[in-house]
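User: Modeling request: complex.
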Amino acid sequence: MLTNVTLEEACELITGNLIPLPGQSVALAEAAGRVCYQDIYAARDLPPCSQSAVDGYAVAMGDEVCNQFQLKGNLGPGDYPDFSLAPGQAAGVVTGGPVPPGTRGVIPWEFAEVKGEYITTTKALNPGDNIKPRGEDFRRGDIVARRGNIVGPGLVGVLAACGNGKVKVFARPKVAVLGLGRGIVPYHAVPAPGETRDCNGPVLEVLARREGAEVLGVETAGHMESAGGRECLKKLLRKADVVITTGGAASGAYDQALDLIRQTGARVLFWGVRIKPGSHSGAAVLDSRLIVSLSGNPAACVVGYHLLVAPALRALQGLDPQPARFDAVCKNRWPKKGGTRRFVRGYISRNQNQWQVNFLPGQKSSMLRSLIDYNALIDLPAGHPPVEEGQRVSVIPLFTL
Amino acid sequence: MLTNVTLEEACELITGNLIPLPGQSVALAEAAGRVCYQDIYAARDLPPCSQSAVDGYAVAMGDEVCNQFQLKGNLGPGDYPDFSLAPGQAAGVVTGGPVPPGTRGVIPWEFAEVKGEYITTTKALNPGDNIKPRGEDFRRGDIVARRGNIVGPGLVGVLAACGNGKVKVFARPKVAVLGLGRGIVPYHAVPAPGETRDCNGPVLEVLARREGAEVLGVETAGHMESAGGRECLKKLLRKADVVITTGGAASGAYDQALDLIRQTGARVLFWGVRIKPGSHSGAAVLDSRLIVSLSGNPAACVVGYHLLVAPALRALQGLDPQPARFDAVCKNRWPKKGGTRRFVRGYISRNQNQWQVNFLPGQKSSMLRSLIDYNALIDLPAGHPPVEEGQRVSVIPLFTL
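Assistant: Request completed. Predicted assembly structure:
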């Protein structure tokens, strides 16, 4: 068993053991934010026929300039031309409506004078003016999205315009959370003296949903004997793609996570990562199922989630598992020099054209306080000196900025 | 009726006529991403009692250094101390478990030697070491969130730790979309020759949901006579907080949006905005209901949504209506000089420490192409000269960066 691996080794072991989930067809409005399972091509020309961009008169002409036309017909909304225009002829058309074959341009009504069956233009017209040619936006067969692209509003629009009601997207990873810490009870239970409410479960539920996962359940087994915990874990592994355990992950007498995971028959990928907080993290696989064991300390649990679980959820959905990363300027200082590589919870913001970051208060791994406002992790390398205000640090943005 | 107002006037007219929605209690896991309706305070001390940060021995001592202690008891997981420690006494404790009254520090088990009923420390201990004092993270009554804050994972954790199962958040705005363009049919219908599939409805549904809205329905009235369209709009106004109409908003013979809106008894706030695309936008109010009329051209409709509807949806949920905005460096050029103020669809990205933006292809207001990849609007002021590569422009970021 690999122990105390680097973060990069841990991520590679996890994502290297994952196979992206299968595709599923979902209704257009439900597809937004999901990940395309396959390349998507325009199913037809858009617009499907040449259309007028204005209310006015479609006109046909030869090579000579012409400013008088014979009105051949009038197309209202929803009308489709059953005639074509010869040079010198015109037809009334509406915005977005089809123009008759032979149309060279459309004169907006405000620049046309009608006299009997003739119209005269009061403004020079160039060929193509106010026409949206068939296929101007997309030609049938044009690629509109690639496998791995996130379905956004524009793609939804193109698919709707083509009449596609379904999109094939990667299935959502099914996630279950199991609290293993002793004396941990569900947050909605009333804890007996000495027991503690599980705050990690609801936090992980929220975080995993943001990453596109479907959360099947949040359970605790802290009150169970080892056999009960093992059966609970086995049950979750039958339905979930990823089981996140929290707590029981240190090396004390009551720490049962590693034992329980081994008892399911899962193969341990690593145990212990050289980061702080989150050093008591581990991972295992059972068939195509992933188990990630995180600390029971809330901040360590959350850091472990972002660095180890979120990349797995992204990989399962065909996305790049690596988080974004950029430099930011410190707005305050971090007085401690570093031992182990540390991930400090920070708040990043934009000041004119540069990114700045605050080290948030309440950074003990047992404390929730830094999580109230965090939107980034600040990556301080092993053995770093104290960090001064104005210094640049590497940050991993986590939430919408 | 105000016509051809500036964008800022339009926004002020819209948000100035809105009252934030009432609050509603929702379950913790459903609250993430919603907006706090009221200030939230910690309901108890966290941790609720002084706890050990490690597995080891809680010890009590006076002012003298002491390295031998009499073992008074042993607290396993879930145990609560029914005794206190006098100087010179110790008790076995577990990570996260309560320490007995009188505890001055906890010796990790790896630095303790047990001989009979005595333990000896092999490492100097300072008062407070390895103790998480009661209320260290939060004291009962500490503010943890303010009205208008978005519920994030950390707040969910604090509320779970306090045993709160519900959060009061602003109600979601109820939105309905009504396509008024003549010859427009629902995207899942098979259009007759001359008819066009409604792509704006699904796009607006996706966009409004992103902004926290509940979308009640997407309808089209393009096939109806005026009376039918009016009844449809009235019906939607009975259940929706915001009705977005698309199409029929220009000033041609078949443009019915303004007429229909007036027929409902709504008060028109403005009609026409000095922006491109999206100049054919308008807004009206009926009691506390908002109607925003957008162009039927997809790109104009989307620009109008971001600039006029999204701010309203934010204001209804107690958020700052103003979008974020910053400068970015152009990666390509925009060759046209400007007439009206223009909002070009762009793609912003980060290059090391600066933001850059691309003008996307397919910028005609009738085209969907620029919407496939857009994540920002580029705000080009009225009368701007052509924009060169390397120039700075003001951008409104729209989606997660």
